[in-house]
Each structure stands twice: as structure tokens, then as C-alpha cells.
Automatic annotation (TrEMBL):
This is alpha-L-rhamnosidase. GO terms for molecular function: alpha-L-rhamnosidase activity. It comes from Eisenbergiella tayi. It is an enzyme of class 3 (hydrolase). Residues 626-735 form the Alpha-L-rhamnosidase concanavalin-like domain. It comes from the Bacteria. Residues 1085-1155 form the Alpha-L-rhamnosidase C-terminal domain. InterPro entries: 6-hairpin_glycosidase_sf, 6hp_glycosidase-like_sf, Alpha_rhamnosid, Bac_rhamnosid6H, Bac_rhamnosid_C, Bac_rhamnosid_N, Ig-like_fold, Rhamnosid_concanavalin. Its EC number is 3.2.1.40. Keywords: Hydrolase. The lineage of its organism: Bacteria, Bacillati, Bacillota, Clostridia, Lachnospirales.
Amino acid sequence: MSFAIKEIYVEYQKAPIGLDEKRPRFSWIFSSVEKNMRQSACRILVKKVTPAAQEKIVWDSGKLETGESRGVEYAGEELEACTVYSVSVQVWDAEGNSACEDTCFETGMLNFSAEEEDINRAWEGAQWIAAPRFHVCAQARGVFILETELRLEPGSRRAGVVFGANDFRLLDKNQNEYGLEGENYIRYEINLRALAGKPAQGQAAGNAMPTLDIYRAGYAPGDREDIPFASVPLVPFEREDSSQESTAAQGTGEAEACDSSLITEENAYDFHCLQIEVDGNNAFTYLDGVLVDAVAKQEFFGRTVKGRTLNPRGNNDVLTYPRLNEIGFFAGEGDSACFKYLSVRNMRAPSAEFIRETPEGGLYGREGIFCKKEGIRLAQTESGESCFSLSSAQVTADPSHSSIPMFRTLIRTREDRKPVQARLYITSRGIYECRVNGQDITDRLLAPGNTQYDRRLNYQTYDISDKIGEGDNCVGVTLASGWWSDAQTFTVKNYNFWGDKEAFFAKIVITYDDGSRQVRVSNTRDWSYYGEGPYRYSGFFLGEQTDGRRLGLYEDYSKADFAETGWEQPVTYEPVPIDEYRAMPPGFGRAWPGVNETKPLLLGGYDAPVYVVDSRKACSRTFVDAHTVIYDLGQEMAGVPRIRFQEKEGTRLVIRYGEMLYPDLPEYAAGEGGINLVGRLMVENYRDATSTDVYICAGRKGGEIWQPRFTFHGYRYIEISGADNPPEAEEVESLQYSSVTDFEGSFHSSHELLDRFAENVKWSQRCNFINIPTDCPQRNERMGWAGDTHVFCHTALHNGFLKQFYERNLQAMADLQEPDGQFPEIAPVGGGFGGITYECASIFMTAELYRQYGDKRTITAFYPGLKKYMDYMKDKGLPGRGDMSVVGPLGDWLAPQETDLQLMWNAFYYREAALMAELAAIIGETEDAADFGKLAEEVKDYWNRTFISPEDQRTRNMDGELCDTQCSYVLALEYGVADNREAAASHLLRKTRELGHKVGTGFFGTGLLNMALSKAGYPEDAYKLMLQTAFPSWLYPVTQGATSIWEHWDSYTVEKGFGGYNAMNSFNHYSLGSVLSWMYEWILGIRREEENPGYSHFRLEPCIGDLTYAGGSVSSPYGTIRSSWEKKEGVLIYSCEIPPNTGATLVLPDGQIKELGSGSYCFAC
């Protein structure tokens, strides 16, 4: 047969299971050895299939006279929930030849209601269940409230609490940039010396009063144990007066006397409640419920009150210090004090207590961490209360306890029947891993994925039929924080953004040969919990800590014969509503939104699953010292390592990650505190995302394989510390995670640097397409910034089929749309800043997806929200002097040349209106189309009158001052807002040549720059820009060793190192790589036609530049399109491959125009 159906897709997926779609669409692609293959007709037959293999026809389309092979909508009987359907597709070509292929799909719950009654019915009474206790890793807790009630004994002067002690990063000189390795702690103490006539440090004798003294030891080279880092009077903090701020060790001022001291001679030796709120790098302090220590500052946006900065690196976008670490008590030399308790709780609602140490012990019946500590004893107060008593000592202990939670349930199948089918339906708040009878049930990772959790939550359906046997069976579930809890976002205080516990929701259905069902749901009766497993901690930002000696338990806990010892009953869990929170002053970004005020929809279907898609072994290893080794993978990646160790039992290994090493430059050769940083891991740009794994070796004979399960990192380099036998390079492997499993886009040429650039773009796409499109995969963001997303969308679609991936992101934006219509800058989660250049993403991406795939349903699904957004924009002063101040406006982000913001905003507004007119017309909203068209003309008229100089047609700002940037002309041309396109093109050409064919644009101009030049008739200048290697250019980072796309044009240079961007820097940011689409569309010549959305017909028009050959491919809904050319002995050889059921217009460089059907072709010209 000349053609065949290569693959059938149901709702754009291969044989999906658990599909919540009432009217799924069917698509198929062909393989054909013949040219000009075109479908003329098709027939679709859908049958309901019972577990006993009985079939019933629910839809027979009949023979449809159509050439459409994409998105044919189901039109049969109403689909039933949790049911298997077979699909047969028969297709005829124009000659009457036919081909047939089969597939299947399975529906999910088909419940589209968030009402408790409806969810209860669909899930048959399942409950959200969680651990009855918190699991605590003190080394990873940077946000907490520490509290004690203490009393100094009469005559004593100094006592307090300690936290942040013995941070392992500061005990090893190789794990901090200061080269510190020694005792470290933060101590807050009450100082009553003034009542004895001795003023505290930093106070004049006449101003003597009790103080709060803060000591910081071992955190920075200049720290002192004998001089307080800061000292403030114990008086109410005046928010309008910053005079209380005093940092005695640095001599920045003295505390002033006042009459409102909270500690007087009368109450000096009473119990006082000392509370310290630590939000990463800063802390507020309260005494007896009254704020006594904070910092009031006059900043650009007004006066702010913040916590005192404890971190010597600063308070924002830095490596976070302190963490909770060891905690304890202090009494000064010759002093005695007693403490009723030491409590630590979460800062974010519901502010649950996760540590409480009393003389009776710890939480959950645990033995107290201080019960066997020297220097501390148990005593009683006069009223008979138990307390800790301390004299002339500082005592600390590690409060870490419990592991990430594990759950299991036993299911005994019915003896008189045979199981023929088994399904597991499951979702979680947090991420889960599930095992059945000792086996993993899937190779997908990080399920259920990242969504706006209070609006919609994906569940997954697994066919576990081959894992369920007769008799006893066991299902095990392990939970980790994922995108739900733990450290989240670039605001450290957002710890536990959604909730403080992980939980799961599940239903297991076993179907027997007689059609009967056995159901087991998640509940507190049938499931057990265990909190002493091998995975002591796991979080996306901070890494994973694993005790390899306990891994055997993880391998066995889901086996039916596993002996439950120490297992407990789980509890039900529902997150509480959390109010919105403003981390930035008004005018510089939004508040983080309130969450959990609504119940989420539980939906099955496409959820951007994450898989291991590639791997790399280390290409070298370098010893920093005998026990610290750095491995170079030779490639920036995002995922986890897989390493073979051969160490003694109990050996503690610390594994860190970095994108770069410190270069051999004077500033690093000297280093902070005199330490030589050259060749060491640079981790400053990870900020709060410490990305540190800890593994305790099991000491197995023949070695052991370690691989994290519940986290991921972005990195090129792996550092291993603590190994007596460091692995060889070939024993260190990295696994690449991504939701992009197939890359159809490819590019190769005679230019080595250009090829490497194309690969860099694809690597950054892989790394940043982990469930959602993110800005970066490594630092404490990894978020769906809308600006980054929409500028790269066009390029990404060339590389693979991403329709549902991006529609899922559009849904997250829709879920976060404000009542007034404003779209978010970040989705999921919300918050952020950017203004119209980011908020436009929903409109831009909807139009882009329609042009790529031709699916009107994408438009109709999101159109109401897009229209509501345009209503919101009416009040923003556009066209005109736009008011974007409420969300912190951003222009052409990180451009070498700054473009006027008002010029950009008005250009974006025109583009929004023009696209809305186009989208409205496509779906038949003719009145809206006319209105938006009229608005577009009004904006265009204003833009040209305001931002174009009538004298010379150069761009200017609203005050008539010259703008004249590449970006301003690029937007004028590519957004279609310029009246005089010839003049705009001429000025773009002039500006590009004035810059020496270097790039002057940032995130929003870069992807359009070469397109604008080429369309204007200057492709040779676009080529010069593309092949430029001097800074700033696309190939400059490649010459500096880049293996991915950088955030800055000069994120690193051989001459200047990181150029001062050590913290605000990413080496895996795809935005500036969006020019790859130009390489596909102009060098290879593969271009969509707007009049034929979805590539049903397209254009092939290669632009031959200063290369010997070029070739590659792009993705289309019909299959892969290929194009290549080569110069041979004065002749150009051009080849192409057109997928079946499509056609193309070929325009060769010599002017020949050919209409081609599907097939492979070769031409000489």
C-alpha cells in the first residue's frame, strides 16, 4: 500500500487513559512512500469495551468526505466515566486507496464540579489523608517563628536563645564563599546589665536600659563572639522612627533612651516571652507580644519596615542564611536562667507548631532533644511548672525529626472471582510516588504536576492490572513537598505557599470477571502512615537528604508481606485559606495572592508529564581537596544525578550543584576573607535554592547507586564532599528531566558555533519545560513568568508538538485572572511584576497556537477572558500615557539599549487590539472584531503621531526626545504599528549597522529582530547579526563556553567573569534564544502561511547566506517538515520533505516557484 496511518491521537494524546473530555477529538498522521498523498475521506468507529472484552458501537461517523485529519470531534453517544473505548480510523486517498488503524482511550471520572457532593460521588468517599505529624529538617528551614518564655534568676544579667547553630555550610570551607569552617550561631539575648548600673554595649551611661543583644558568630569573617552584632533597647518599636536601629559591632549608632522600657526593675526577673520571626535573611523580634526590633528605611517607593538583616550577604536574592539548624539556650558567665519551653512554628497560616521542646519531651511523644545534653538540667518554678535551667552555658541540639511521609494499604482480592482489570486514580497536594507490590507503577516523575492548586488539580489514572494478583496486594504512596509546600518562589517568606502538609487523594478499583468491582479509597481507616523512612527531607529548592541504610525499607514497604512496625494512623487534611501578602512596595509588583479560598476541580487528561529524556556522564573530575571533587558534565542540564558510591556504612556525603566555576580572575583569586575561589563551585546565583543533597551511605558490598527521587536541580557541575573513595568520572551520570520527550526541530550547518547555538536553545527548552514553561530551572524562581513564556512560544512550537502544554499554561493564567480582567505576570501561583509586556501573554499565545495548529477551540475556550482583559486595559490610559505603575512595569528586559516604556506599552496595546480583532473574526464574533479593529486603528494613529518624529521618521518618547533603538523599530515593524514601514525598516537597518551588527535588544525585541530585517529586504544584515561573535550577540556566549542560553548577554565573560551579576544571573534562560525561529524560517525557509493555519499548506523559501550548507526540520501537526541546501561547485542543491496530506509553495533562490504535494524532493539551481 502506498500510504498508511502512522499514529492516531485522541485529544492529541496517544491512547490516553483517565481522559476527562466529553467530546474528544481524533487526529492522525500518515506515512507514505508516494508523492502527493492527500486524504479524501475518513470514517471513525468508536466502541465501548467492557472489562470482559465485550464491545458496543457508540459512534459510527460513516464515510466523511473530508481531507481533515486533525481534530475531528466525537459526535456519538454520551461517554461513560471510567470506561475503555476502542477507536478505528479508516482513510481514503483521492485514488480510492484506503488504510485503517486502531487505538483506544479510557475516560476518567468525567466530573467537572468542585462541589464536595459531586467529588464524593465520583471518588466514592475518598478522603485527603496526610501524616499525623510534621517532618522537620532543620538544615532546610529558613522561615520560622522561634519562641520561648525565659526568666533570669535574680542578679543574673544575660540569657537568651540560640538558632542557626552549626550550619554545615559554615563548618566546611569548601561550602561557603568566605572560607569559614568553625563554630557558628545566631544568639538573641536579654541583657539586664543596665539595671545593675552597667550600660549595654553601644549605650552611654546616661541612657542605660535593658537591651536586646544579637550575636552572630561564624557567619562572616568579621563576626565576633564577644561583641553583639546589634543591640537595641527593649522598648516598643516605632514604625515611623528608625532611631532604634543600632548595630553595635559595626558602630552604626546608639540606642536612644526612652521612658517605655518593657523590662523594669519591677518585672526584670519575671518570665518574659521572647519571639523571633525569621523570614530567611531577616528577623523581627517581639518581647511579650510587642515588636522591639525591626528596621525602618526610606526607600524609592516610600518608608518600609523590614526585619533586621542577619545575613552578611544581604536581604534579597542571596544565599539564605541563617537556617534553623541547631537551636538552644544561653546563660551568660555567672548567670542563671530558666526556660519553660522552646517552640518553633510555621510563619504562614495556619502557623502550626512543628517543634516544641519542654522538660517533659518533644512533640509526638518523642524524647526531648535536650534531655541528655550537658549543661542543662530540669527544674521547677515556684508555681510548680517544669522548666529547663541553665547556668553559664550555651547548649544547642538538632531538632530535626521524621522523614517525608509514607503510606500503605493492604487489599485482599475476592477468592471466588478473578481480577481482570485494576485502576489507580490518584492525586496529591505535593508530589507523590506510588508502588504496587514492590514495583514502581510508572516512569513519569513529579506527579501530579504544577497547577493553580485552589482552582484545578490534575489526577492521574494508572493501569495496574498486571501488578494486582490474587490474594493479598499492597499499594504504597510516598509524598514530598513538590510545588505545594516548602520553599517556593523568589520571595523567601512564601515558604509553604499553598499549605504546610502534603496529602493525597486516591481510589483503587479492581474489576472482576463477573463485572463486579472492589473499591479501596484513601481514608484514615484502611491506610497506615510511617515517618521514619529513608527520605529524611526533599524539596525542589533545597535538595534531598537520604539515609541509604534505610532504603531497603522503601523497596519493601509496598509488598504485601511487609511487617508494619511503628506505623500509625494517618489524619485527614484540608488546607486553610491564606490571605494575600505583599512582599514588595506598591508600584513595584503585585501582592502574592490569597489562596485556598476555593475548592479545586479534580481533572484527568493531559498534565505535562515529566520523564527522563536524556542523560550525560561526567567528562572530567577535579579535586578541590582530598575529599571534595567537582565533576563536569560538559552540558547544562536540569534533573538529578545517578552516582555509584563505594563507601563505608554511615559515610555522610554532601552533593552540591553549580552552573559555573569561579574563573581565574584577581577578584576570585583573593576571594572574600582571603580565600582562593578559583576553580570552585559558584552557587551565589542559586540564592535561596541551596540545591544540596545529603546521602548517608549504606556501605553495601560492591557499591551502591544513589539517585534523588523527589527533587530536581539545574546544573552543569556536581561537587561531592566527604567521600573517601570519590567516584570516577564515568560513575557520575546526570538524568535530564523534561516534559518535551520528542524534539522534531533540528538545525545543522557548516557553521560550528551556529549549530552549538541551536543546540543551546533546545537544551534550555528541555530544562525549562518541566511541567510548566519556566524562566530558569535552578535558582529560587523556576516560575511561569508570562513574558518569558510568550516571547519563546513561537520558537518552541517549531521544536515539538506543544499544543496542550501551552493551553495548560493559558488555563493557569485564566485561573489567576483578576475580577477586573487583569492577567497575571506569573502563572501558576501569581504575584510578580511586569505590566502589559507580560500580561499580554494570553492574547499573544492564543493567536500563536491557532496559527500553529488551526484549532478554533483554543480561541473559544479563552476568548471570554481575553475580552475581559481588554476591558481592563481601557482604564490604563492607553493609547496615551499608560499607567502600569501598579504592577511594576518592565520594558525590553535586559536590553543593552533601553527603549522608552510608553512607546513599548502603546505598541503592545496595538498588537493586543489587532490580534483580538483577528481572533474574534475567526470564531464569528463579528461585532467584537469590528470594535477591536477600530481600537487598533485609534492606537496606531496615536502611536505614529506621538512616537514618530515627522521630520526624520525616527522614534522618540512622549516628550519628543530621541529614542532610536533597535527594539523601537522592531516593534514598529513586527507588531504592524508603523504607518511608514519603509522608514522604520531603513532606521532599523541604520541602527543595526551603527551598532556594528550587534544586538541591542532584550527579551521582547530579540526574537523579532532578524525577522524584521529579513522581511524588510535585508536578510544579509540579519545573517551578519546571527553570525556575529563579538559582545553583545547570540554567538558571543557560545564563544565563552555556553551550553545553554543565558539570561544576560554577558552572564559571563572571560575578561570580566560574572560582571557583578553573581546573584542575579542564570545560565539557563531561553528567552534570548527565541531567534532560533528565524533560523528555521529563513535559513531553512520553512514558514507558516497565516491564511492556512496549522500547516495544511505552507511555504518553503530558503535564504542562502554566508554558509556552505544548512539543513534541519520543524514540527507540524501533520508530521516533520524537512529542508536543506548545500552549495556545490557553483550549484545550489536544495532538498525538502513534505508530510502527507499537506502541500507547500517552494520559492527557490533563482526565482523558480513550484507547487509541491507531499513527498521528498531535490532541486538544483
